[in-house]
Amino acid sequence: MDSMYARFKNVVVGAVVGGTDSGSSNDYHLPRHQKLEPKFPYSRPHFLSLDDEEIHISADHRLRPIIHPSKPLPYNAGYAECINAGKSRWNEDQAVYRQGVLTKPAVQFSIPYSYYGIFDGHAGVGAALCAANQLHHIIHEKLVDAQDDIWVDFNGKKSVICKQTDLLIIGALESAFREMDQLIAEDRTKYLAPGGCTACVALFILGKLYVANAGDSRAILCNNNNFQPLSMDFTPESERDRIRRLVEDQPNLIGNEFTSKEFLQPLKTTDLGKTVMFRDAHMKGWAYKTVEQEDLKNPVIVGHGKRSRLMGTIGVTRGFGDHDLYAIYTKVQIKPLLSCRPEVQVYKINSTDEKEVLVIGTDGLWDVVCCSKAAEIVQKSITNFSEKERYICAATCLVGFARGSLINDHNWQLKNGKQASCDDISVLVIPTFPYKLEYEKLCKKYNQKICYS
After folding, report:
1. Cα 270 from chain centroid?
2. How is the chain split into domains, by residue range?
3. What is the largest CA-CA distance in the chain?
4. Neighbours of 348 (CB within 10 A)
5. Residue pLDDT, tens place only, 215-257
6. pLDDT band at 164; cut points 50, 70, 90
7. What is the DSSP string of 68-89?
8. What's the CATH class of domain 2-229+339-445?
9. Which residues pair with 358 in a beta bridge?
């Protein structure tokens, strides 16, 4: 035990003294799945290299230790995480990185790529574990399918990779997301994989960064206290129009429980026969109507901002899983309104030094840390720490800031006295400059022109 703790302390920082509270478990204990085993046993990201005892220590809900890798990731990229304050037994976030190569000996080409992903699970750890263990394999298969065209495009006479390569890689990511979701659906009869998860992944290839996001995790590019969003949050609030139009056009998706109409004020039975302002799913403006009994149904989206919920049940609208999720107190399935389709943004890497970094975090970070504050924290770490330490310190500081400090029992606060994040928090901090150099080296190897526009 002494040697285990000695090793573990090297990957734990910023702990607050306290006891152990394993919290409530809603992951692998659904009665109707009693005979099924999980496809992947619970673990933390592979690059943390934690054994079973260390995993249990990392799940201390009162200590909430901040965990980071004991060995550096490629180009000293940073990662840090901490568990929630008791809302679920295990940390339902997952993260992964992989390095791959597209190669074909017959024509002697070799194109390297790097893949990073963060998955925020809900209602169990199953879907996030499946995505962390399988999505990169699916993406690789999709890239291999397109690699001949990608190579021809790269090796052509043009001085810059044309839009065809962008479309091929975007298509590979989109089709991989769909296949991942289908795989989780098909595995339900064979394995226990409850719940769902969001997905935000980054692919570095040929001097570009492709960010594919489905859910409310977020990716931003930071440079000298400035930031550039590379994803949008997909929530019932941000996708209000898509969902309401879908259910208006296909009312069978919501049965008799909900309505796609939106009213200026919540309706009551006493409003029957009154004239009120409303709009249907295809209206931007407001009109008047007389309230009928059907108008008293629950709106398909309730609440606003971070508190918005789809059918009063779930706070995200894109991701993997949730194939067995029903609207609370109803028999209406929610999955038909959810989407596994990612938004993919493409960024041509043109950084001139190692100050530019990609930050990917689950909503446990972004719920309490705005993008400008995250950029400020990252910049301080880059300025104050060595090249080997700066990115892991940036990730650790981001998690530490969002987690705050334990003031009293189960009360975590930020330095300004506001409520800290009580959710699982996971953060990747990845420098982009090395991938620009990697691209330049590849171009030189194959005598290709380099274009930074």
Report:
1. 43
2. 2-229+339-445, 240-315
3. 76
4. 16
5. 999 999 999 999 999 999 999 999 999 999 999 999 999 888 8
6. confident
7. --SSPPGGG-EEEEE--SSSSS
8. alpha beta
9. 221, 430
